[in-house]
Design a protein that fits this description.
Elements (H helix, E strand, L loop, with lengths): L7 H35 L6 H26 L1
Helix pairs in contact: 1-2
Length: 75
């Protein structure tokens, strides 16, 4: 950002790329967490009820976190 005075377009382009990289890092982290949840229940064979219940609770907590973050961003 320090180079804005000398080259505003380059500074804005760099900021745009940085935000894009940050967004991708968040998406990658969320996808990794989702994959970890999927592995818990998909590798359990038929999956007993208790395993499925615990997985569903984890999915709900994950979704609640996502929804809370989305609400906070929309304000």
């Amino acid at each position: 950002m320090a180079g804005f005075v000398d080259d505003p377009r380059r500074a804005v382009t760099a900021a745009h790329e940085l935000v894009g990289q940050s967004i991708q890092a968040v998406v990658d982290a969320l996808n990794a967490e989702r994959s970890a949840l999927e592995q818990q229940w998909s590798q359990s064979g038929d999956g007993n009820t208790e395993t499925m219940r615990l997985c569903l609770r984890q999915y709900r907590a994950f979704f609640d976190r996502l929804a809370s973050d989305a609400r906070a961003q929309s304000k």
